[in-house]
């Protein structure tokens, strides 16, 4: 492949811009706020699950408490009616009086048992409601932190994106100076070699793989026409000849 030396030199400018884009993409992926936001989101989700469980339990206990209090009211009302009958003096039959007194005593024991249940349920409700209050506060705090971190993440990402847009525009301008076939080769190699497709030949060394070229390789490049596109024999990247390539004087074999 042939290309004017100036066009080959532009590959180094293009490579520098593509490397800058890689760094920006790495910065974007590596923002600490991304990891922190993900951690906080997991925390909020975990609290939400606990809170739903606690709220459901509180609702169940509330229904249980209402049922237990209704049972107490029912027994108390019945005991009050029986007590009034007993105190009214309308019942004179000894057997009936005995049965009524026995029922009142039984209702008293039942009321005491139900009131004990109500107290236990109230204690349980207090404990669960404390959990609900605690979890609600923790959720509000976690959500506030998540909101703050995501705002910082979005701001940092926007700044990186602005830099990326600027570099991309520069890349488009540089790409326009490079022949289509050379640009196609460059893009193909870039996808194969970790984003680095073109490197300067500097002081007899490929700046892509950092290996020094042999005397034979340097002499072959020296004998190659300036418009001939050369490749590193080791890493196969495009080698761009510059004033620092070390090709000015012949090298003895």
From TrEMBL:
Q: Which Pfam families match?
A: CT398_CC (PF24481), Zn_ribbon_9 (PF02591)
Name all C4-type zinc ribbon domain ranges: 205-239
List the residue ranges of the region (Disordered).
Answer: 59-86
UniProt domain CT398-like coiled coil hairpin: residue ranges: 14-193
Protein name (database record) = C4-type zinc ribbon domain-containing protein
Q: Which organism is it from?
A: Nocardiopsis eucommiae
């Amino acid at each position: 492949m042939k290309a004017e030396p100036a066009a080959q030199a532009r590959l180094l400018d293009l490579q520098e811009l593509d490397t800058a884009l890689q760094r920006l993409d790495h910065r974007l992926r590596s923002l600490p706020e991304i990891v922190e936001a993900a951690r906080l989101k997991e925390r909020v989700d975990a609290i939400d699950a606990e809170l739903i469980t606690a709220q459901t339990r509180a609702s169940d206990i509330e229904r249980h408490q209402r049922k237990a209090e209704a049972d107490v009211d029912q027994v108390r009302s019945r005991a009050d009616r029986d007590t009034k009958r007993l105190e009214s003096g309308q019942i004179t039959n000894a057997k009936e009086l005995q049965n009524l007194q026995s029922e009142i005593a039984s209702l008293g024991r039942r009321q005491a048992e139900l009131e004990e249940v109500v107290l236990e349920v109230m204690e349980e409700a207090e404990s669960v409601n404390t959990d609900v209050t605690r979890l609600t506060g923790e959720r509000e705090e976690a959500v506030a932190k998540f909101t703050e971190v995501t705002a910082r993440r979005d701001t940092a990402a926007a700044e990186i994106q602005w830099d990326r847009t600027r570099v991309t525009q520069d890349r488009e301008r540089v790409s326009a100076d490079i022949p289509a076939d050379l640009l196609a080769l460059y893009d193909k190699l870039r996808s194969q070699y970790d984003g680095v497709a073109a490197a300067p030949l500097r002081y007899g060394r490929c700046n892509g793989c950092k290996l020094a070229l042999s005397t034979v390789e340097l002499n072959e490049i020296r004998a190659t026409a300036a418009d001939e596109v050369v490749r590193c024999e080791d890493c196969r990247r495009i080698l761009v000849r510059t004033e620092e390539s070390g090709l000015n004087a012949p090298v003895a074999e």
